[in-house]
Amino acid sequence: MAGKVALLLWAQTLGFAGTQTTWIIVEPPWMPAVLWDRVTLTCQGSGTSSATTWYKDGQRWGQQGRDRLTVTENGTYECNRTGTGLSLPVRVSDDWLVLQVPAWPLLEGDTVTLRCWDRQTNTVTWVSFYHEEKQLVELRNGKELTLFPLQLHHSGRYHCRGWLKDREWVVSAPVTVTVHVAAGVGGALLFLLLLVGVIVAWHRWHCVAARKQQERPPPDPTAPPKGGKVPYTHGVSSKQARWSPDVTVPQDPQETYVELWGSHGRPWEPGDIYGNVL
What we know:
Elements: H1 2-16, E1 23-27, E2 30-31, E3 33-34, E4 40-44, E5 52-56, E6 59-61, E7 68-70, E8 75-81, E9 85-86, E10 90-93, E11 97-102, E12 106-107, E13 112-118, E14 124-131, E15 134-139, E16 144-147, E17 156-164, E18 168-171, E19 175-177, E20 179-180, H2 183-215, E21 229-234, H3 238-241, E22 254-259
Parallel strand pairs: 3-10, 12-20
Antiparallel strand pairs: 1-4, 2-11, 4-7, 5-6, 5-8, 8-9, 8-10, 11-13, 13-16, 14-15, 14-17, 17-18, 17-19, 21-22
C-alpha cells in the first residue's frame, strides 16, 4: 500500500510539473514482478477506463477498455490511455531466481530493500548481491539487502547469485536502480537558478539604461534664455577696472538682473540652484 501511495504522489508531482503521463501500478509493488506472486496491473492516466488498451510483448492483449489486468503469463506489459499515450513497460518474470527492487521512485535519503527471490520460495541459500559486477555481501540464509541512506552513487545495475536446491548456482538477470534527487534539493536548486536569472536581468537593464544616458545629446548652448529673472550681485574692484583717479568708485556693488534658463526648460523657481554668473 505504501508503494502504491508513493507512486501516486510521484505521478501527481509529474502532473503538476506539466508532464502528463500514463503509468502502471504494480501489486505487489516489486520490480520486476514475478508470475508466482499473483500480480495485478492497473493503468493510470487521463480519461476513463474505457480508453485503456493493453499490450504484451508489443501486441494488443486482453479486453479493450479495462484499466485493471491480472497477469497469467510472463512477458513485458504496457498500457495506453487516450491523451497521455503509452506507459513505460513493466516486466513480469518467471525465472528461477529474480532480484527485485521496490516499484516506486527511489529518492535520495530513503531506505530501500533489495531482495533475491526464487520461484520455489525459501529454497535459495548463500545469496550474494552485486553492484556493477562488484560483490557487496554474501548471506548464508538471508535474501535481502538494505541500502540506507540512499545516495546517488547507489544508482546502477544490480544482480544476485544463490544456491538453489537441485539446481546448483543460479544468477539473476540484472536490474537497473535509479536514485532521484529529493524534491527539497530540487526546489532549492530551482530557486537558486531563478535568483541568478533575476540578478542577470537587472544587471543587463542597468547597463542599457546607463548606455542610453551616455548617448543622449547635450543641450544646445546657443538657445536663447528663457524663464524668470535671477538676481545676482556683481562687484568690481578699482584695481581690476583700473579706474582713473578722477573717477569716483561706487561704494555699493551694482545690482542687476539677467534672464536665465529654468530647470529642464521651465521658468526659474526659487528652489533652483545655479553657479556663479560672470
